[in-house]
Amino acid sequence: MGTAIDNTEVLKDWFLRSGVHTPLHTCIGPLPSSRASIVRWTSNQPDAMIQTISSHPNDYRIAIMLEPVDARIWLHGQPVWGGVIAAERFRICPPSGASQWSRLSSCDIVNLFVPAALIDSLNGLRETPLSLGAQQFTSDRHVMELVRRMLSGDAMAGPLQSQYCDGLMVALLSYLLEHYSRPAAAPQSSTLGGGRLRRVLTHMGANLATGVSNRDLAALCGMSEAHFSREFHLALGLPPHRYLMKMRLEQARTMLLAGGRAMADIAEACGFHDASHLSRTFSRHFGTPPAKFRQQRGN
Questions:
Q1: 63-78 mean pLDDT
Q2: Cis status of the peptide bond prior to 30, with omega within 30 of 0
Q3: Can you give the residue ranges of the HTH araC/xylS-type domain (predicted)?
Q4: I need a surface site. Which of 84, 207, 235, 265 has the fewest CB within 10 A?
Q5: Burial of residue 290, with CB atoms counted within 10 A of its CB: 0-12 exposed, 13-18 middle, 19 or more buried
Q6: CA 288 to CA 299: how far, in whole Å?
Q7: Enclosing H/E stretch for 54
């Protein structure tokens, strides 16, 4: 795709070429000063067909997973990922090259298209210019906070939404250049991947109500507890007990959206001690109590 991103139709065409045939949830851009664009797309259905994602020659693309997604990714024909990408993970794709992926679950993904010229301009203000890059999926609460603010720009700034998002975009890129552009050793890769990781996550998901021990999960993989915990953390960025809590919270949110269940029943089904424990934990993670969350969505 060689056309400059100068209107939303170019963005929609890029997504159509990349296999996205559902209407885009959010499509903003280019922003007036940064010329960056913000696109959010969701799908309730998996798509096992291998799609080619072509990088725009003039833009970095920052992909942010708002929800967990089960995906397979290939770069230069070599597999680089197979399994679940956790929620609130992002990666930075440079302005060249192409990747392929297939998606075996639903998704909720934000893509930020950032002109390389803007990155060069900001980088030039640094005493030591460095290359921006984070091609491994990474978790960072500051990145997620800024992205979520962009997504709520209409509610926060009304007709000044574009100007509001422009400021946040520069703040995000300044942060990324500071924290994701230093030369570093090649990231450690986990030996816990593919079928073994999917088996562990399936077992965890089937036992949200009762919980599972590290010993049991390690036994599924033929590892010692210490080795399993280390490899799990490398693979998903969280220790097993914290990832299990994330899964419980995601399940609770799904049940709240579905409606028809008492809070105590949801707490029990998702492995919380009681409704109060669910409410406290849900509020810390999602920023709103579960009762209010359900009320806002009419359930």
A1: 85
A2: yes
A3: 198-296
A4: 265
A5: buried
A6: 15
A7: strand 47-54
Number of folded domains that form the chain: 2
Is position 1 within any domain?
no
Q: What is the pLDDT of residue 185?
A: 41
Give the per-residue pLDDT at 77. 67
Decide if 193 is inside a domain: no
Mean pLDDT of the chain: 86
Report the pLDDT value the prediction gives residue 287, as an integer from 0 to 100.
74
Query: Pick from 121, 79, 93: which is nearest to 18 by CA?
Result: 93
DSSP code of residue 108: E
Q: Which two tokens stand for residue 85?
A: 């990408």
d(CA 238, CA 241): 8
Helix (H) or strand (E) holding 210: none
Same domain, 165 and 212: no
Contact indicator for 129, 88 with CB cutoff of 8 Å? no
33, part of any domain = yes
User: Using alpha carbons only, what angle is made at residue 174 by residues 168 and 176, rounded to the nearest 5 degrees?
Assistant: 100
Q: CA-to-CA distance for 116 and 59, rounded, in angstroms? A: 5
Q: What is the DSSP string of 83-96?
A: EEEPTTEEEEE-SS
Where residue 262 falls among pLDDT bands split at 50, 70, 90?
Answer: very high
